[in-house]
Amino acid sequence: MQNTATPTHCPYCALQCGMNLTPTPDGTVEVSERADFPVNRGALCGKGRTAPAVLARNVRLTSPLVRDAGGTLVPASWDEALDRIAAELSRTRAEHGPDAVGVFGGGGLTNEKAYTLGKFARVVLGTSQIDYNGRFCMSSAAAAGIKAFGLDRGLPFPLEDIPKSGCVILVGSNLAETMPPSLRFFTELKENGGTLIVIDPRRTRTAEQADLHLAPRPGTDLALALGLLHLVIAEGRVDEEYVRERTAGWEDARAAAMAHWPEYVERITGVSVPQLRETVRLFCEPESAMVLTARGPEQQSKGTDTVGAWINLCLATGRPGRPLSGYGCLTGQGNGQGGREHGQKADQLPGYRKLDDPAARRHVAEVWGVDPDSLPGPGRSAYELLDALGTDIRSLLLMASNPVVSAPRAAHIEERIKSLDFLAVCDVVLSETAALADVVLPVTQWAEETGTTTNLEGRVLLRRRAVTPPEGVRSDLEVMHELAARLGVEKGFPTDPEEVFEELRRASAGGPADYSGITYRRLAEENGVFWPCPSPAEAGGPGEGARPDGQLEVVDMGEDALLDAPLPDDPARETPTAHPGTPRLFLDRFATPDGRARFVPVSHRATAEEPDDEYPVLLTTGRVVAQYQSGAQTRRVAELNAAAPGPFVEIHPRLAARLGVAEGDPVAVVSRRGRAVAPARITNAIRPDTVFMPFHWPGEGRANTLTNPALDPTSRMPEFKACAVRLEAVAREAVAEESIAEETVAEETAVRETVERETVEREAVSAR
Ligand code: SF4
Hints:
CATH topology of the domain at 78-136 and 335-495: Rossmann fold
Distance between the termini: 32 Å
Largest sheet: 7 strands, mixed
Number of strands: 30
Low-confidence stretches: 538-574, 737-748, 754-768
CATH architecture of the domain at 78-136 and 335-495: 3-Layer(aba) Sandwich
Shape: globular
Structural class: alpha/beta
Bound molecules: iron/sulfur cluster
CATH class of the domain at 78-136 and 335-495: Alpha Beta
Strand order of the largest sheet: 5-4-18-17-16-6-7
């Protein structure tokens, strides 16, 4: 591979920061600033800056592993490993039917991989049982966005609109730790005279930047939004003309909000009436204003209604579809947006089409060259799928996910995984879930392969290959190609990402997330393109046609026209007629049949598990700046581990005093699902009725041992953000001296060293 800088993107969060990568003569990879990418303008957080550390051979897998008769994972050839997976999946299908095979994907997979995984599950395995960990990320916001606007795209405007707005309410987002480079947009907002309001039970680093910080009790964001809407109505701040011209369903939503008078909301949330009034004043007075939600309000058993309440507030004040205004969701995972558009979700086909829509099935089946009737229907959501392992689902193929750490009620899910007849995992490292597998396939990662991702703005990006992968690893696309062939499907699973993308364009054409006008060439030249981006209308292009301003225009083109439409891979076609992409949605109309946004009437309800005498405290969970999600990658980076070596329990001084706990003392946090132990971190930045744990670690301090899998009835999102716990002081001598992170790394190093030793021995034997 060349020793010049390759412009590409970070492997981690949904900001997808731009960076340059340069391989150095000593075998390492240098990260340098890429100032031309407008989202981060060269800035990176510590995770992005240190991401190449996970490319090193000494932290990642480079040989397939197969569990031997003695129960040990041992190195194997690729043929041996792939043959074993194909044989086990075939056996499960034959003995128990296709739905006994499950597939679990990840929000970090590129669009090409997510698309191919959905196709592989439905065409090769014939199973309906596919979902992915992105269900745990943004599904409530997606469901609420579709109900209200007819379309789910995280942000309906670029991040660069934020500094020019008059007011932004950030609900349950700690982006100073989750996406540090994005904080610049909010600093500039304040410098320009705008107001930042942060809603979070903790006074986070983000909340410290706010002009106004509201700290509601966890699980009460829905009541808070309803109380604000009540005041908007009572104070005569409703934008009546906007509501009349651009929305439907106002009267029912209005009646629901009027039942949530401010004093009642104060009692539920703990946010005072004067603070509620001040929030309404700051939000309503400027010409433009936004509400942005993240996991706080979304990861609740009423997440869809909660986001719906915030959207109602925006609609009543005339914000969505107006300049520098509206509602948006800050998607979390690297390809959390694209990963939910192209078919790895249980109910979905590429282009954000619905699996139970006959026209969508016909369209995609024709692109795939199969009978529409052969496509299975919708399957289980992520938690329900994991909960069915070992019972209805006997074998699982898992890619880019680590549910042993990241799933709610994680000890139970770990047991379900152990009870499988067969588990195959594709991963870069030996994650806690991969360590339980029967076969582990070592795959290429971000900088070693080309593919597209779609960031939180809906901007489709080209993540380019910058370094040569080590001997012994293959891409996920190669894995699916090889498995498809072994399972009797010789064609339709290319290994070249651009070839996959060309097919994805055809499959998405005319769908809500229409990528048909996007090419690798355009992505390279234009620094990303916002979807929807149909192919040129005059070429017989699909449904939502081009307009010079990039706005949606609904055009009924019919299925045949979609399938016959040539795609603009001729560069000559790309310039004058190419659709510009759609940075800003809804300026003229919403993506509903009548173009109007929908109010959805919602009412407050309690969390699934309220505190009681036995479990009197609320637990909420989240992230720290130096670790990412389940930590499978970032816990292998020394610099990040030094900054964030292990879990902790954040406790208010009054609660700590009641327990007799001092800073650093081990504390047991006990819920109805299990017990976790971690050192106390005492701070008055948290409410006295609430404790916080980050969820990046396995073992004794695993926060998700405690979390509640109560599901939102629409999005099937588990209630990660609020459950009832009790706290117990633990004697220091009862806790091992080493940090849990150190223990984990030591165990994994031992496995890796065994694997490397056995690989060398095996190679020596075959050489003889
Ligand atoms: Fe990577 Fe996100 Fe950090 Fe940017 S903010 S460098 S995308 S982890």
